[in-house]
Amino acid sequence: EKDGHDWFMRKEIHEQPHAVADSLLGRRTPEGLLHLDEMRLTDQELRSIDKIIIIACGTSFYAGMVAKYAIEHWTRTPCEVELASEFRYRDPILTPSTLVVAISQSGETADTLQAIRHARTQHSRVLAICNTNGSTIPRESDAVIYTHAGPEIGVASTKGFLTQLVACYLLALYLAQVKGTLYGDEIGNVLDQLHEMPDHIQRVLDGEQQVYDLAKEHTGSRSVLFLGRHAGYPVALEGALKLKELAYLHAEGFAAGELKHGPIALIEQDLPVLCVVPPQGRDQLREKMISGIQEVRARGARTICLVEDGDEAIAPYADVLIRLPKVPVLLQPLVAVVPLQLFACELATLMGHDVDQPRNLAKSVTVE
Ligand code: M6R
């Protein structure tokens, strides 16, 4: 049942190329238009949307953070992302022209469910991104985009996350198509790039031994930091969450630009800092990231940098370089998070923890 792997989580990490491909399947009409099966909201309804609020918890929340970059960039519609547990307690401004997007792998998370119920009382439209057919959240939503990850058994979400990202990109492109904020061939180009992602993810998986060796060197670490910018920031947060959940280690993710506003005080000799470097071509972002890496290294940190293949500028400041396939910045989370999943899975295994059933956690959290 684990296909020769020691943990469901490791199996599920390796299923990601497939899960991403399946989640992209059948989304294009013969005319080359993007088509979403259970969209159910009419083009007219979608055109009237003037604000999007994404609500989710945990890893799904980080998928929502990535979605915000894609939605605002491609559709020019304001988009907020909020933790489901905070949402309804602040009396959010919701109208019939607000689209609330609930992201939930299980479809049963109580915080997220209560948040959509609240949104519906305010007559907002609700769209669910969900991996579990017929679960409560999609049943109570106006529209659904199902991810096709297959059942996710490991408590730590992996293929659930990657397929949520795919669904978020598809939603953003679909809105851009309906609203006319992108041309057909621009949408086609991104879809082509998405279809290349399973191969890219496979290449990252093929390099897993490097990450396993790295994990071996860090079994004695007491704390690990993660840095990212733009779409790499939620990846940093997700890398940290995986380590907390599985290795019970203190781990924190930061937006790299925030370092100098406080967190840099945490840096001490040999502290591991994993840095998600934006791809080349986004040079403003990348250069700022590089200077952040220089800063922490000058203070003794051990810098482990995830960088695009062929990017040599980081090499002088990196103790370890993990190479990522060349992909656009908005899609980079699909490849950048994979080494972080492998790292947490391996480190927890080496520390003797139960990776599939971490202490104190449940797969779906059905209490608020
Ligand atoms: O089923 P959901 O996507 O609604 O679950 C949300 C979180 O509980 C979940 O992502 C949690 O953070 C995972 N254990 C992360 O690995």
From TrEMBL:
GO terms for cellular component: cytosol. The keyword Phosphoprotein does not apply. GO terms for molecular function: carbohydrate derivative binding; glutamine-fructose-6-phosphate transaminase (isomerizing) activity. Its main location: cytoplasm. Residues 42-181, 214-358 form the SIS domain. Catalyzes the first step in hexosamine metabolism, converting fructose-6P into glucosamine-6P using glutamine as a nitrogen source. This is Glutamine--fructose-6-phosphate aminotransferase [isomerizing]. It comes from Nocardioides luti.
